[in-house]
TrEMBL record, chain A:
GO terms for cellular component: cytoplasm; nucleus. InterPro entries: E2-binding (IPR014929), ThiF/MoeB/HesA (IPR045886), ThiF_NAD_FAD-bd (IPR000594), Ub_act_enz_dom_a_sf (IPR023318), Uba3_N (IPR030468), Ubiquitin-activating_enz (IPR035985), UBQ-activ_enz_E1_Cys_AS (IPR033127). Catalytic subunit of the dimeric E1 enzyme, which activates NEDD8. SUPFAM superfamilies: Activating enzymes of the ubiquitin-like proteins. GO terms for biological process: protein neddylation. It catalyses: ATP + [NEDD8 protein] + [E1 NEDD8-activating enzyme]-L-cysteine = AMP + diphosphate + [E1 NEDD8-activating enzyme]-S-[NEDD8 protein]-yl-L-cysteine. This is NEDD8-activating enzyme E1 catalytic subunit. GO terms for molecular function: ATP binding; NEDD8 activating enzyme activity. Residues 348-436 form the E2 binding domain. Its EC number is 6.2.1.64. The active site is at C211 (glycyl thioester intermediate).
From TrEMBL, chain B:
GO terms for molecular function: NEDD8 activating enzyme activity. It comes from Ignelater luminosus (Cucubano). Pfam families: ThiF. SUPFAM superfamilies: Activating enzymes of the ubiquitin-like proteins. GO terms for cellular component: cytoplasm. Gene3D superfamilies: NAD(P)-binding Rossmann-like Domain. Keywords: Ubl conjugation pathway. Residues 18-529 form the THIF-type NAD/FAD binding fold domain. GO terms for biological process: protein neddylation. InterPro entries: APP-BP1, ThiF/MoeB/HesA, ThiF_NAD_FAD-bd, Ubiquitin-activating_enz. This is NEDD8-activating enzyme E1 regulatory subunit.
Length: 444, 535
C-alpha cells in the first residue's frame, strides 16, 4: 500500500521539523535532511523484546516516531491481569499470543507500519536472526533474558587485531519497571557498560530460612512458603507442580496457609498475598510503564537519527514522592564476565576440600556470576570431560556422583579451565582455576 | 475437633484485572479512582496519553473538551486518532479511541473550544475531580486558573514541545494520608513503653535464659532489657550520642556467656538487637512537619465546612497533647524469634494501635457532631489508616497559576546562576506562551520563519525578564534556537513520557496517596534530565 506523498509529508510534519532543521544540541554527526526520516521509515529495523507492559508502549511509541520496520518477540499469552496496562489487548484476546495481538493492533492503527511478531522465546533464535537489526529495545521483567540477549550481542562483536569493528555493534536499550520505579539505559556492546557489568544492581531474591518456615513461622509469608515448599510436594493434591495461574492450586495453597496461620495465631494471610508470594508478583501500573517505555523510545530515535546526543548511559526514575529522575554514567567493568574479553580466573582456597557441588553453588550464589543451573565441562590431558550437567537427564544421572567429589579428586589442577554453560548467556564461559593452596596433595 | 477449613474468597474479574495496581494503592485507593471524574481540555497527543494511563487503571469517567477537528498531523502523533477520523471533531474521535481501553470507564465529549465553554457554561469545570489542560492559550488559562483556584478543583497544565515538557500543578490544598515513604524506621516505643508493653517486657530476664530460650527471644526484648541495664548505669538516661550507642551495642555483644558456640558469631536475634540500636531506641517523635499540620489553622479552627482530614487531625491533636506522642503504628518488623514470643509482641502493638485509633475515632465523631456535620463523614477505616500513617501525613499548599503569570518577580534568579538549570526552559516556555498569544502561531512553525522567529522570541523573553527584574542576557541563545527548531512539533515519545508522569500525579490527587509535585516539572529529553521548581 502506498501513501499519498502529500498526506505523508503532513502527517510526519512533527518529526520532519526536528530531522530537517539544524539544532544546537544535535549529535556532531547530525546533518539535517529528509533522508533521515526515509532511513527511519524504510531501512531502520528495530527489535522490541517483550510485548508486555513496556513492549506495548514501545511499539506504539516507535510506530509514531516513524519506525515502520519493527519486530516484536514474546513467548507469553495474554492474561486478565495484563489489561490494566497492556493497552493493545482486550478481554477477547485473553489466551492469544501477546506478540501477535500487539503487532496486529499496531499495523491496523498506524498506516504503513509493519510489525512482525515472533511468538517464541528469544533463545529460539540465533545470531542470524539478531544480526538483521539496527537497534534492539528490551522491555523485559527477567534478568536471565536480559543477560542472554546481552551475551548474544556481545558474541556478535567482531574484533580485528584487537580493534572493535564498529559495524558489528548493535546498540541495546533496556527499560525496566517495578511499581512507581523504573530505569532506562543505553548499552553499546563492547563500548559502554553492559548488563553483566552491573550485575550488582540485581540483589538476590529474598528467601526465608527453611527452619523458620518449618518451625518458627511469624509472618503470613512464612505460612504460605511452608505450604508451597513442604506441604505441596508431600500431599501433591493434583500430582503436578504448582501452577500459579491455576486458581484451584492457589485456592488450595490459600486454604492450607490459612490453616497453618490459625494454628500459629498468625494474622494477615489473604488470597492476594498468597498469589503474590506463589507467583512472585511485581506490582505494575500503566503510568510507570508509559514513562519508561517513552524514555527508551526517545533513545531509539536519537540513536537512529543522531538528532540529539544519546543518554549516557543510565537513568533512574521514581514518582512516589514528586517526580524524580537521575541520569549518570555506569562504568564498564574491567573484568566483566560478558564483555571484557579478559579470561576469568577463579581463586580456589582449598581444592582438596572444595567439592564440585560447592563450585556450582558459588556460580549460582556469588554476585559476580548469578547463574541458574550451570553445566560444567573441562579438558583433562587433552580429553573432554563432562563434570556435571543438570539439564539433560541421562547426563545428569551419569555425572551426579561427581557432585560430592573434590576438585582434586576430579583431576582438576591449578590452571585448569572449566567451560560453563548457563541460561544467563548464549556463550560458553571459560573459567581458569587458580589454586591458592600451594601444597596440593595429588589424588591417586 | 478439626476446625472447618477456610474457603477461598471468590475473586471478582475486576480485582483480577486490577490486581497489579491494587497491590500498590489498595482497594480503598481504587474506590476513589472509580468515583473520580476527570476533564481533559484539548485532545492533543499529550492529552490522550495522560487519559490513557487514567482510563486503564479505571477512573470513573472522563470528559474531553476540544473544538478542533482531526488533522493529518494529529494522526502522526496521536495514537488514539485514526486515519478514518480526519475531519471529525477531535474530542469525539479521541473519546471513542480511549473508551475502547476499558469498558468500566464512561466517557463523553464537548465539541466546543474551552474558551467557548468557559464563556457559556461558567461553572462547567467546577464539577470535576481534576481538570487537565494541554496546549491551552494564556488568555483562556488565566480565567480558568482563577476560577478553579477559587473552587478548589485541582488543575494540571501541561505542554509538550519538541524535546521539552512542562507540567504545572495548581492546587490550593492537598492532604496526603499515605505517603508510602521508601524507608521507614520501625515504630517500637522502647523508650516510652505503654503499661501493657512494659509489663510484658519486664517479665523476661534475658540474662538468665538457657541457651535454647536465648536463641528464641526476639531482638526487641533483648534490646529493651539492655536499655534498662544501661539506664541503671547512667542515671536513668538512654544513649544519645554515637559513642553512647556504641556502649549499648557492646553490652549486647558481650552479654552472651562463653559457653556453646565458640565461633564468636552472635546469634541472629542478638545481631538484630545490635542493629536495632541505631533506629529503635528513640520513639519517632512528633516531627516538625507533623506538628505544623496539627497546629495548622485548619486544624485548630474547625468549621462546619471542615473536611474529614482536618476533623480527624483535630482528634489526633488531642491524643498527641495528652500522650505526648503519635499513635503507635501497630506493625512489627520481622525478627528471629519463636512464634509465640513474636506473635505475643505483635498482638501487643496491634492492640495498642487499635485502642488509640478507636479513641481518635470516637473523638472525631464527637467533633463532627459538634460542628453540625453528619458523623457519617468520619469512617472508622479512614481513622485507622490515618493513625497508622500519622507520621507520614502531608499537606501540600500550592500557588495559583494566574498569580504566577501576573507576579512581577517570580523567584527564579537563583536558579539561573547554574548554566545547566532547566529553569532556563521555564523562562523560554513562558516566552513561547507570549509568542503564541501575540502571533497566534508557534515560533518556527514555518520553515522560512525560523530565524526571524528566533529574534522575536528573544525579544519577548527579554521583556519578560526585565518585567521580572532579572538581568536580560541570562538565557542562552542556543536554547531559544532549539525551541524555534521545533516549530511547535509534538514528538510522540516526549508526550508519552509526560503523559505517564502526569497521569500518576492525577492519581495521587485522586487517591490522596503519594506526594505530588509542588508545583512545576520540567523535562528535557535532549539530556534525559528533569527538575521540579516551586513557583
Amino acid at each position: 500500500m502506498t501513501e499519498n506523498p502529500d498526506s505523508s509529508q503532513k502527517r510526519w510534519g512533527h518529526l520532519r521539523k526536528v530531522l530537517e532543521r539544524p539544532g544546537p544540541f544535535s549529535h556532531p554527526d547530525f546533518e539535517p535532511s529528509s533522508e533521515i526520516l526515509d532511513f527511519v521509515m524504510t531501512t531502520c529495523k528495530v527489535l522490541v523484546i517483550g510485548a508486555g507492559g513496556l513492549g506495548c508502549e514501545l511499539l506504539k511509541d516507535l510506530a509514531l516516531m516513524g519506525f515502520k520496520q519493527l519486530h516484536v518477540i514474546d513467548m507469553d499469552t495474554i492474561e486478565l491481569s495484563n489489561l490494566n496496562r497492556q493497552f493493545l489487548f482486550r478481554h477477547k484476546d485473553i489466551g492469544s499470543s501477546k506478540a501477535e495481538v500487539a503487532a496486529a493492533f499496531i499495523n491496523k492503527r498506524v498506516k504503513g507500519c509493519q510489525v512482525v511478531p515472533h511468538f517464541c522465546k528469544i533463545q529460539d533464535y540465533d545470531e542470524t536472526f539478531y544480526r538483521q537489526f539496527h537497534i534492539i529495545v528490551c522491555g523485559l521483567d527477567s534478568i536471565v533474558a536480559r543477560r542472554w540477549i546481552n551475551g548474544m550481542l556481545i558474541s556478535m562483536l567482531n574484533y580485528e587485531d584487537g580493534t572493535l569493528d564498529q559495524t558489528s555493534i548493535i546498540p541495546m536499550i533496556d527499560g525496566g519497571t517495578e511499581g512507581f520505579k523504573g530505569h532506562a539505559r543505553v548499552i553499546v556492546p563492547g563500548i559502554s557498560a553492559c548488563i553483566d557489568c552491573t550485575l550488582d544492581l540485581y540483589p538476590p531474591q529474598v528467601t526465608y530460612p527453611l527452619c523458620t518456615i518449618a518451625n518458627t513461622p511469624r509472618l503470613p509469608e512464612h505460612c504460605i512458603e511452608y505450604v508451597k515448599i513442604i506441604q505441596w510436594p508431600k500431599e501433591n493434591p493434583w500430582g503436578t507442580v504448582i501452577d500459579g495461574d491455576d486458581s484451584q492450586h492457589i485456592s488450595w495453597i490459600y486454604e492450607k496457609s490459612m490453616e497453618r496461620a490459625l494454628q500459629f495465631n498468625i494474622t494477615g494471610v489473604t488470597y492476594r498475598l498468597v498469589q503474590g508470594v506463589v507467583k512472585n508478583i511485581i506490582p505494575a501500573v500503566a503510568s510507570t510503564n508509559a514513562t519508561i517505555a517513552a524514555i527508551c523510545a526517545t533513545e531509539v530515535f536519537k540513536l537512529a537519527t543522531s538528532c540529539c546526543v544519546s543518554l549516557n548511559n543510565y537513568l533512574v526514575f521514581n514518582d512516589v514522592d514528586g517526580i524524580y529522575s537521575y541520569t549518570f554514567e555506569y562504568e564498564k567493568k574491567d573484568d566483566c564476565l560478558a564483555c571484557s574479553q579478559i579470561p576469568q580466573t577463579l581463586p580456589i582456597k582449598d581444592p582438596n576440600k572444595m567439592k564440585l557441588k560447592n563450585l556450582i553453588e558459588l556460580f549460582c550464589e556469588s554476585t559476580t556470576y548469578q547463574m541458574k543451573n550451570p553445566g560444567l565441562t573441562t579438558n583433562i590431558d587433552g580429553k573432554n570431560k563432562t563434570l556435571y550437567i543438570s539439564t539433560i537427564k541421562s547426563i545428569e544421572e551419569r555425572t551426579r556422583e561427581n557432585l560430592n567429589k573434590t576438585l582434586v579428586e576430579l583431576g582438576l589442577k591449578d590452571g585448569s579451565e572449566i567451560m560453563v554453560v548457563d541460561l544467563t548467556s548464549p556463550n560458553t564461559l571459560i573459567v581458569k582455576l587458580k589454586f591458592l593452596n600451594e601444597d596440593v596433595e595429588m589424588s591417586s | 475437633m478439626a476446625s472447618p477449613s477456610p474457603k477461598s474468597p471468590e475473586q471478582s474479574d475486576k480485582s483480577k484485572k486490577y490486581d497489579r495496581q491494587l497491590r500498590l494503592w489498595g482497594d480503598h485507593g481504587q474506590k476513589l479512582l472509580e468515583k473520580s471524574k476527570i476533564c481533559l481540555i484539548n485532545a492533543t497527543a499529550l492529552g490522550t496519553e495522560i487519559l490513557k494511563s487514567l482510563v486503564l487503571p479505571g477512573i470513573g469517567a472522563f470528559t474531553i473538551v476540544d473544538g478542533e477537528k482531526v488533522t493529518e498531523e494529529d494522526i502522526g502523533s496521536n495514537f488514539f486518532l485514526e486515519e478514518t477520523s480526519i475531519g471529525m471533531p477531535r474530542a469525539q474521535a479521541a473519546t471513542q479511541g480511549l473508551l475502547e481501553l476499558n469498558p468500566d470507564v464512561r466517557g463523553d465529549y464537548i465539541d466546543e473550544s474551552p474558551e467557548h465553554v468557559m464563556a457559556h457554561t461558567q461553572d462547567f469545570f467546577n464539577n470535576f475531580t481534576v481538570v487537565i489542560a494541554t496546549a491551552l492559550p494564556e488568555k483562556v488559562l488565566m480565567p480558568l486558573s482563577r476560577q478553579l483556584w477559587a473552587t478548589g478543583v485541582p488543575l494540571v497544565v501541561c505542554r509538550s514541545i519538541g524535546f521539552l515538557g512542562y507540567v504545572r500543578l495548581q492546587i490550593k490544598e492537598h492532604c496526603v494520608v499515605e505517603a508510602h515513604p521508601d524507608n521507614e524506621a520501625p515504630d517500637l516505643r522502647l523508650d516510652k513503653p505503654w503499661p501493657a508493653l512494659r509489663t510484658h517486657l519486664d517479665k523476661v530476664d534475658v540474662s538468665s535464659l538457657g541457651t535454647k530460650e536465648r536463641s528464641h527471644v526476639p531482638a526487641l526484648t533483648i534490646l529493651y532489657y539492655y536499655m534498662q541495664k544501661y539506664k541503671e548505669m547512667h542515671g536513668g538516661s538512654l544513649p544519645k550520642t554515637r559513642s553512647e550507642k556504641d556502649e549499648l551495642r557492646k553490652m549486647i555483644r558481650t552479654s552472651l556467656p562463653p559457653d556453646g558456640d565458640t565461633s564468636g558469631a552472635l546469634e541472629e536475634n542478638y545481631e538484630q538487637a545490635v542493629r536495632f540500636v541505631n533506629v529503635c531506641i528513640n520513639s519517632i517523635g512528633v516531627s516538625a512537619q507533623i506538628q505544623a499540620i496539627l497546629d495548622d489553622e485548619r486544624c485548630t479552627n474547625l468549621t462546619s465546612e471542615s473536611s474529614s482530614f482536618w476533623i480527624i487531625c483535630a482528634a489526633l491533636r488531642e491524643l498527641v497533647q495528652s500522650e505526648g506522642s503519635l499513635p503507635v503504628r501497630g506493625s512489627l518488623p520481622d525478627m528471629a524469634a519463636d512464634t509465640t514470643s513474636y506473635v505475643t509482641l505483635q498482638q501487643l502493638y496491634q492492640r495498642q494501635a487499635q485502642l488509640q485509633a478507636e479513641a481518635v475515632y470516637r473523638r472525631a465523631v464527637q467533633i463532627a457532631r459538634s460542628l453540625g456535620q453528619s458523623p457519617d463523614i468520619i469512617s472508622e477505616a479512614e481513622v485507622k489508616l490515618f493513625c497508622k500513617h500519622s507520621s507520614e501525613l502531608y499537606v501540600l499548599r500550592g500557588n495559583c497559576i494566574a498569580d504566577e503569570y501576573q507576579n512581577s518577580s517570580p523567584n527564579i534568579a537563583p536558579y539561573l546562576e547554574d548554566p545547566e538549570s532547566l529553569m532556563f526552559y521555564y523562562v523560554i516556555l513562558r516566552g513561547l506562551e507570549r509568542f503564541i498569544s501575540e502571533y497566534n502561531t508557534y515560533p518556527g512553525q514555518f520553515d522560512d520563519q525560523v530565524e526571524p522567529d528566533v529574534l522575536k522570541l528573544k525579544t519577548l523573553i527579554g521583556k519578560l525578564l526585565s518585567e521580572w527584574g532579572c538581568p536580560t542576557p541570562v538565557t542562552s541563545d542556543d536554547r531559544v534556537h532549539e525551541v524555534c527548531r521545533y516549530g511547535g512539533a509534538e514528538l510522540h515519545s516526549v508526550s508519552a513520557m509526560l503523559g505517564g508522569c502526569t497521569a500518576h500525579e492525577v492519581i495521587k490527587l485522586i487517591t490522596h496517596q503519594y506526594k505530588p509535585i509542588n508545583n512545576t516539572f520540567i523535562y528535557d529529553a535532549i539530556t534525559s534530565t528533569s527538575a521540579t521548581f516551586f513557583l
